[in-house]
Amino acid sequence: MTDSIDTKKEDPSVGHAPEMHQEDLDNLVKKFDNESNFRDAKGPLKLFISIVCIVLSLFHIYTAGFGLLNEISHRTVHMTFIMGLLFLVFPRHVSKRPVIGFILGAAYGTFYIVLAHQLVNALGNQLPTIMNVGIYTFAGFMALSALPLKFLGGYGDRPGWLDWPLAIMGAAFSGYLLYFFDDIFITNIGFPQTMDYLMGGVAIMLVIEGARRTMGESLSIIGVVALMYAMLGPDLPGVLAHRGYDIIRLVEHLYLGTEGIYGIAIGVVATYVFHFVLFGVLAQASGLGQLFIELATLLAGRYAGGPAKVSVVSSGFFGMISGSPVANTVTTGAFTIPMMKKYGFSGRFAAATEAAASCGGQITPPIMG
User: Fold this and answer.
1) 39 pLDDT exceeds 60?
2) Which of 22, 142, 211, 307 is an S-S bond match for 112, by CB 3.0 to 4.6 Å?
3) Rounded Cα distance, 288 and 159, in Å
4) DSSP-derived 3-state class of residue 227
């Protein structure tokens, strides 16, 4: 305890943090949390995004309480809205190391072109010339969008000229399954058509690029490595080698069923998680976060080490309505860290307590991170 408490006389100003406006807090969250790095949309774009979000929310409220859709239709509707919004709401990924960012972008671009080439070769004579040109053009377009080139735009609060086509295609690949549901899953089940495979290739590219924007490089790299491992199995050395999976089988597994893109993860999000996140957003907008801080102070503030306990309790409460540890830290920490310092805790201990409590708070139901 001697390491955590500063025995020197405290400056009267300690514990009174400089006032931070909500805009400053939002910018701080965006800096450290990829998932919270939204564009600050304005004007017609803000109106359009708001309308789409309202429609999506009403759809989920309807299906939760009244409507009944088969699992594929439910998940494709969800993905149609989400993938369309993703490229308008999230800016293009900016790497902190430009050289590494360019190398990674080139690697993604190469993968997209290789994927298109594999698809064209696998389909062979089934593929009309216009579709052949179309899939290569789209792969080139995706390869260009993967490169961190400033003239492409899309880094700030306004979507770049690349973002709109990506948003349209992001909505289209799920909308395609929904529109042709009877043909794909009833009439021709087990016998996918050429267009089904092409849309599957488009879907794989867009999901990987969408993961880059929302989660950073790590998840998308894992996805690309897994796909390359599946396709290059016979060429791998030693115990890593396997028979391999052709692109046709991969597309069928990932796109035309409920074990890939439209698998359990999307099913859980579309059926359960979305409603809790919607509740959390409404709760935060209504000021429930401040109520949690005051309630935690009332419950734990009277005991020994009270400020630190307030930090833990308030972070646990706030985790009920927020899925972001960074947002939790910034929101509750703006109050609890100065309070801990005021009562003699060192700055490092106060910050560490709040950070640990905010991370732990993410397992608090119902959102649970």
Assistant:
1) yes
2) 142
3) 32
4) helix
d(Cα 73, Cα 85) in Å, to the nearest integer? 19
Task: Read off the amino acid at residue 239.
Answer: V
What is the C-alpha separation between 20 and 214, in angstroms, rounded?
26
Residue carrying structure tokens 């028979």: 243
Average pLDDT estimate for 107-134:
89
pTM of the complete model beyond 0.70: yes
Beta-ladder partners of 135:
none
Dihedral sign for Cα 195, 196, 197, 201, please: positive
> What is d(CA 167, CA 68) in angstroms, rounded to the nearest whole number?
27
User: Cα(253)–Cα(266) distance, rounded to whole angstroms?
Assistant: 15
Integer Cα distance of 241 and 220 in angstroms: 23
Q: d(Cα 98, Cα 147) in Å, to the nearest integer?
A: 10
Query: Which residues, other chains included, contact 29 with Cβ-Cβ below 8 Å and sequence gap of 6+?
Result: 36, 324, 326, 327, 330
